[in-house]
Specification:
Blueprint: H1 3-6, H2 11-18, H3 22-40, H4 51-64, H5 68-75, H6 79-95, H7 104-108
Length: 143
C-alpha cells in the first residue's frame, strides 16, 4: 500500500495501520528526505520509491514481519532493492534521537531479555572406537 493511499486516512485509522501518528510520520519522513537529498546530490540513479514509501515499508516490515519479497511485490521493485531501502531507513532511524531505539547498554540491562540461537552447522563427533574390532577384513563382492 503506497503512502498516497494511506495519507487519506484520518489520524486514528492511520495510527492503527502504520503504528505512529501522522504528525510523527511527517516529521520522520522530512528528516529522511533531507538525508536522502544529501546522498542524491553526490549523483547516481534516482530511487524508484519515495522517502514516504520507504518509511512506510520499513514500519510495515518492523510491525508485521513481512518478508522482503512480499514488500517488494507490494511496491513493485526487486527484493534486493527493498532490502537496501529498509536497511538504509533503519540505520537512519537508529541515528535519530527522537525515535528512542534503545542502545546496547539499555539492551543489556535487566529490563530487556534477549534470546540468541546459534543455528550454524557443526560436525558431529563420532565415537573414537577401534574400527578393527568390528571389521572382518572381507570386502563386499559385487561380482
Amino acid at each position: 500500500m503506497r503512502y498516497e493511499h494511506v495519507k487519506k486516512y484520518n489520524e486514528s485509522q492511520f495510527k492503527r495501520l502504520v503504528g505512529i501518528k501522522p504528525s510523527t510520520f511527517e516529521r520522520l519522513s522530512g528528516k529522511l528526505r533531507l538525508i536522502r537529498q544529501e546522498v542524491e546530490s553526490k549523483g547516481g540513479r534516482k530511487p524508484k520509491l519515495s522517502v514516504e514509501d520507504i518509511l512506510l515499508a520499513t514500519l510495515s516490515y518492523l510491525r508485521e514481519y513481512r518478508t522482503f519479497a512480499h514488500l517488494a511485490a507490494t511496491y513493485e521493485i526487486d527484493p534486493s532493492n527493498m532490502y537496501r531501502a529498509i536497511r538504509w531507513c533503519e540505520d537512519e532511524l537508529i541515528k535519530m534521537e527522537e525515535t528512542s531505539i534503545p542502545g546496547l547498554k539499555a539492551l543489556r540491562s535487566k529490563e530487556y531479555r534477549v534470546l540468541t540461537v546459534d543455528v550454524t552447522e557443526c560436525t558431529i563427533e563420532r565415537p573414537k572406537e577401534n574400527q578393527n574390532d568390528y571389521y572382518s577384513g572381507k570386502k563386499n563382492d559385487t561380482e
